[in-house]
Structure formats: C-alpha cells, structure tokens
Design goal:
mainly alpha; elongated; 78% helix
Length: 72
Amino acid sequence: MSTQLTARHRGEPIQFRLLHAICFSIFLVVAVMKRLWSWTWFSHRGSAMHRQSIFEEARNAAGICATYAFMI
C-alpha cells in the first residue's frame, strides 16, 4: 500500500507543472486580450496605478488555478 502512495506522490510534481503550464498559456492569452480590450475602451485611465505585467498576471492566475486543482 505504501508503495502505491509513494508512486502516486512522485507523479504529482509533473502533473502540477503540466497543469500550471496549460493554465499559464490560457491565462496569458486572456491577459493579452484584456489589455488590448481595455486599451481600446479606456485611454490611459489608470496610468497612476501600478499594474502587473502580462506575464506576472498570467503566472499568478495559473498558480492559483493549479493549486486549487490539487486541494483534495
């Protein structure tokens, strides 16, 4: 029984990385579309506010999504 558990736990980092990569690519496209969409509707309205880069935004969203997937 313990060998099954250790074998299962060995594959989890690979699954997490794969899920994180998939989520990152999806959220990266969403972040780019959101920036382009907001740029066309609002002309530099929040320029004084600090905004994350597109990659930071996608990485944070993917990290949250992938973490929730493994909370069982």
